Amino acid sequence: MCSFCQGQGTFVALDSAHVASLAVYTARETFASRARKEVVIYMALYTIIRIYEVPAENQQEATDRMMKALWLRVERDFHVRDIIREPGSKPGTGKAVSLKPSAGWMQLIIKQLIGL
User: Fold this and answer.
1) How far from 47 is each of 4, 83, 103, CA to CA, in Å?
2) 28/75: higher pLDDT
């Protein structure tokens, strides 16, 4: 009996390629499990609030319109502003922030060629 079978009465024959790959896999899993257990990173949690204004006659209609806008990916039509709040600060406090993505390389080239 092999020590791997632990007295179960089964025997598995592995060639050298499989033994090597099993050893590498075991080493990687051991390293990964140790890294997961030992490394703990604490980070601050910021609150980001997106404010939308949706015209409607009641709350249900406003919710339906907003859900439809999200589904159609046109929620920017109702978007008013963004606010970021520091970790541990009280509700009602925060700073206005712009969450627009930066210009892509094609937009930058066109802007430079036109001269805007």
Assistant:
1) 52, 8, 25
2) 75
Domain containing 32 equals 1-41
In this predicted model, which residue has the larger pLDDT, 63 or 41? 63
Shortest CA distance to 49 belongs to which of 89, 76, 82?
82
Q: What is the pTM for the complete model shown?
A: 0.53
All residues at 6 or more sequence positions from 53 whose CB lies less than 8 Å from its CB, including other chains: 78, 80
Tell me, yes or no, whether 10 and 33 share the same domain: yes
pLDDT at residue 105 tops 70? yes
Same domain, 24 and 64: no
In this structure, the answer to whether residues 96 and 56 fall within a common structural domain is yes
